[in-house]
Amino acid sequence: MKELIIIAIGSAIVNNVVLSQFLGLCPFLGVSKKVNTAAGMGGAVIFVLTLASLVTSIIYKFILYPKYDYLQTIVFILVIAALVQFVEMFLKKAMPPLYNALGVYLPLITTNCAVLGVALKNVQNNYSILSGVVNGLATAVGFTIAIVIMAGIREKIEYNNIPSAFRGSAIVLVTAGLMAIAFFGFSGVI
Amino acid sequence: MNKCTERIYNGIVKENPTFILMLGMCPTLAVTTSAINGLGMGLSTTVVLVMSNMLISVLRNIIPDKVRVPAFIVVVASFVTIVQFLVQGFIPSLYDSLGIYIPLIVVNCIILGRAESYASKNSVVPSIFDGIGMGLGFTVGLTCIGIVREILGAGQIFGAQVLPLAENGGFGYTPITIFVLAPGAFFVLACLVAIMNVVRAKAEKKGKPLPAAQGCLAGDCASCGQSSMCTGKVNAASEKKENA
Fold first, then answer.
1. d(Cα B142, Cα B101) in Å, to the nearest integer?
2. Cα angle vertex A29, ends B147, B201, to 5°?
3. Euclidean distance between CA atoms B204 and A166, whole angstroms
4. Mutation choice for B interface testing from A88, A113, A122, A157 by most B CBs within 10 A
5. Rounded to an integer, what distance in angstroms lies between the CA atom of residue B59 and that of residue A87?
6. How far is CA B200 from CA A159, A165, B14, B19, B20, in A?
7. How many angstroms separate the CA atoms of B207 and B100, rounded?
8. What is the ipTM of this complex?
9. How far does A146 lie from chain B, in Å, by closest CA?
10. CA nearest A174: which of B78, B187, B142, B104?
11. For the whole model, what pTM was predicted?
12. Tens of pLDDT along B185-199?
């Protein structure tokens, strides 16, 4: 139990997926203009990352390990791509309200490097299936925290007078850098 | 200029993936803590890019149009696995410092982007040179950013001390350690984007506009290898309209 809590805090806050590992930067920069859409994206990432780390952990433990270890990159990326498409179709058919809330964000996640990154990290750190799922969930929660804060700041930035060279993505990157410094403060937690 | 040298010039200067097109930002930020890491990552990506461009160009008439993206991903992932084992076997120190970012070359948008926009439409030899040009352009970009971060953050270039450090209260350079840490990556990239914004505006005034940025920094899906089967871009487009 203690180990799981350490994994959860470590991946959600201390080693935040966007701000210290630079995974999932595209949606972080692209879908963070409004708090609502950012929260929707966060929800979709939580859903997909948890599911993907469960599925990839199971596949790795029972099929790939130890004989076909070297196939992990190929298998993981295909499984993740297929899984996201499948989840999208399933939600559309079975749970329309959830699909309306998350549906549009799901395809954006397919090639999100955070999903593949978490799957590979679970293998690298030799996590059990349960630890892997906790790691996936915590990473996604960390992503959601970061993107929602970023969206809140960006809504305020709109009203400021920014030097013309820094307008657009440059000021967003400066903001992300300052957020990364703030998140550095957590590094003593574990 | 013949077609092959034109492709190399195009990749390194005219459409440099780091400076002009702003593609592949994940590895750009993550591995440029030192010049040597940037160089190693750039060269690994180049090898994958050249090999995958070559194979995809050879197979371009065999792969059915509907499943081309998954087919490209399998090709790219295979070469990434090969490169990963080569680096692990021959340059273990580089493998340790790049870690998880080597297998993540698979999702680097430069590679799928080139496969989709160039290799799947052109014959083998130009595709190979396109891969070499784009790969070297990416390598140059990563190495330059790595050099800047290494000088500011440690006073070194390629591990050699170029700025004498201030020790025991003497006169010298005090390293700004934050530049080799995560926040420094964001600041350096922000300055790069700002500089490019100025350069771009000047070039436009002269009547010679630079090619538009394509990656996620432009908030555009066009360059993404998945864009053909992605339905999320509808949302991105509507958000753009709302903000305009």
1. 14
2. 65
3. 17
4. A113
5. 31
6. 25, 10, 13, 11, 9
7. 43
8. 0.89
9. 14
10. B187
11. 0.88
12. 999 999 998 998 899
